Amino acid sequence: MSSLPVCQTLLLELHNGVLHITLNRPECRNAMSLQMVTELRSVLTAVRDDRGVRALVIGGAGGHFCAGGDLKDMTNARAQGASAHRDLNRLFGALLQEMQHAPQVVITVLQGAVLGGGFGLACVSDIALADHQAQFGLPETSLGLLPAQIAPFVVQRIGLTEARRLTLTAARFDGHQARRMGLVHFVEHDPQALAERLDEVLAHVLCCAPEANAMTKKLLLASTSQPSDAMLDQAAEWFSEAVTGAEGVEGTLAFMQKRKPGWAI
Q1: In the CATH hierarchy, which fold is given to the domain comprising 1-189+207-265?
Q2: pTM, entire model
Q3: Distance from CA of residue 72 to its chain's centroid?
Q4: Cα-Cα-Cα-Cα dihedral of 234, 33, 15, 206, to 10°?
Q5: What is the pLDDT of residues 137-174, one digit of tens each?
Q6: Considering only CA atoms, which of 75, 40, 216, 55 is closest in space to residue 127?
């Protein structure tokens, strides 16, 4: 069995072949810091070749899944120049790629805020379960930013038409709407029902041979066009330009100061 890394931003529990990963920064609705991205990648690396780990279940502490990227990290990166923003953004794209191609069955349990980077994680899961009151959205453009690493995975998950509407309006929507657009597979109305649905899904997953599941997942992903490294590198460049540009500075400052940005009516 794999030796799991010691993590400060994640809670890890391995039981009966299922690794439960809890994003554990409840004080900021589990906003994704550079440390969290790094720790998630290290966990994926640790279990990649271990067929004893059959499924990864990702949830969030404190009633929220993930409120997106940590703007404090972006602010700190601003002092280091454009390349720091580009590299920070691209690391999240690498996480999405690695999670997309994890040989285990990846299940997300979505409650509360499922925004930005959290939305991206939902898009690369094999099976997504949501609370009906979960709040989904891609708020980047309302902050003067781009959903640079997330966008190709969103398009792949729900299609170009819905992706255009959601990214260009920063619209929020609930679990029922997420189910209708194909982002999630199951919607439940209380925590108990959500837990029971997870148990049901895991029972089905554990009926399937782990190597067969891994290869089937690889086959299915190979049958669709995948985001290329070159395209994600370009997206990271554009993100860096947005963060350090006038709109990005205004948008992130407005968020931190809890006010509307200058362009918002």
Answers
A1: 2-enoyl-CoA Hydratase; Chain A, domain 1 (3.90.226)
A2: 0.90
A3: 18
A4: -30
A5: 999 999 999 999 999 999 999 999 999 999 999 999 99
A6: 55
